Amino acid sequence: MEITEETGPSGGRYVARLDGVEAEMTYSRASPEMIIIDHTGVPDSLRGKGVGQALALHAVEAARVGGWKIIPLCPFFKAQARRHQDWRDVVV
Questions:
Q1: Can you give the pTM of this predicted structure?
Q2: 71 Cβ partners below 8 Å, 6+ apart?
Q3: How far is 46 from 67, CA to CA, in rounded Å?
Q4: SS (H, E, C) 57-89
């Protein structure tokens, strides 16, 4: 699975492609030190394949490398963050 990032002036999205199908996790930039993850979209054909989890982990790793924090507004990401106590260094 390939995960790429598309950015714009106020945010962006992480895009996962698997079997020719695209899933996404979108975010907005609240400040240079903080992003807000607001949506995760995984098509039915990719459900149960760990795509959403891979996107969430990618966002966490990007935050660690970039030195910013994540505010989880997306229900999926928020649920994942509750399950992964080791993400507390970047999830507020």
A1: 0.95
A2: 30, 34, 35, 36, 37, 92
A3: 30
A4: HHHHHHHHHHCCEEEECCHHHHHHHHHCHHHCC
69 token code pair: 């924090």
Task: For residue 28, report the phi and psi dihedrals to the nearest 5 degrees.
Answer: -120, 150
| Cα angle for residues 29, 78, 39 (degrees, 5° grid) | 50
Question: CB of 40 within 8 A of CB of 15?
Answer: no
Q: Residue 44 phi/psi, 5° resolution?
A: -50, -35
**pLDDT tens-digit series, residues 14-65:** 999 998 999 999 999 999 999 999 999 999 999 999 999 999 999 999 999 9
